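A reminder from the course coordinator: this example appears on the midterm review sheet, so study it carefully.

Given structure:
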């Protein structure tokens, strides 16, 4: 059995038929959260469970808001997300059975698109992925009880830096190295240094940069 299949089987065993299951996939920037979430959603769906990925990145504050708050150079840090809106969505996902619209971050435009996807009433497993889902800092630490199962992607710091530098090269960003040094890596250190204990740790060899 592949590791992805093993993780999917673990989620299957924990799923309950009487309510939706919320799974957190956390990790530092560049750890491969969206890649793992997508592969797990495919594996779960092929196994007969209706699954969908909900990215935390949909709750990025717009650049105009960040400018007003003096946070433009810290985009991606915990304080640059609409935490209250994200928490509200998680509570709705756990308690409501109607279709729920969710925002999705569009990296090509560097902004979140409102109501860009739908968590349908029949989606039984919701895979929430984001940097700070297990951050041991208020208010983020208050999210832990909302998750039925938690996964943390463990990737060496040097590999994360390599992936992040490559990410910005691929996007043609000239200030990529400076941005990684001044913004991305401080966020990496925050995620790796201050996290709650997950139910499952996934090692780096299983994940690609995403």
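Designed residues:
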């Amino acid at each position: 059995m592949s590791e992805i299949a093993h993780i999917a089987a673990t989620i299957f065993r924990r799923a309950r038929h009487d309510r939706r299951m919320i799974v957190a996939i956390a990790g530092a920037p560049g750890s491969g959260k969206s890649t793992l979430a997508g592969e797990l959603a495919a594996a779960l769906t092929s196994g007969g469970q209706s699954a969908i990925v909900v990215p935390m990145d949909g709750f990025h504050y717009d650049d105009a808001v960040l400018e007003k708050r003096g946070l433009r150079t810290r985009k991606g840090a915990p304080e640059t997300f609409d935490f209250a809106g994200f928490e509200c969505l998680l509570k709705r996902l756990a308690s409501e059975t109607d279709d729920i619209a969710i925002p999705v971050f569009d990296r090509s435009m560097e902004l979140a698109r409102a109501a860009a996807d739908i968590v349908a009433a029949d989606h039984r497993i919701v895979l929430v992925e984001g940097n700070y889902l297990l951050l041991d800092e208020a208010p983020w630490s208050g999210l832990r009880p909302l998750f039925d199962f938690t996964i943390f992607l463990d990737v060496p710091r040097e590999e994360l830096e390599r992936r992040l530098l490559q990410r910005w090269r691929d996007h043609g960003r000239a200030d990529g190295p400076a941005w990684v040094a001044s913004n991305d890596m401080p966020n990496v250190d925050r995620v790796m240094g201050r996290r709650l204990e997950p139910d499952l740790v996934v090692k780096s060899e299983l994940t690609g940069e995403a």
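The beta strands are 21-27, 51-55, 100-106, 111-119, 125-130, 149-154, 200-203. The mean pLDDT is 93.
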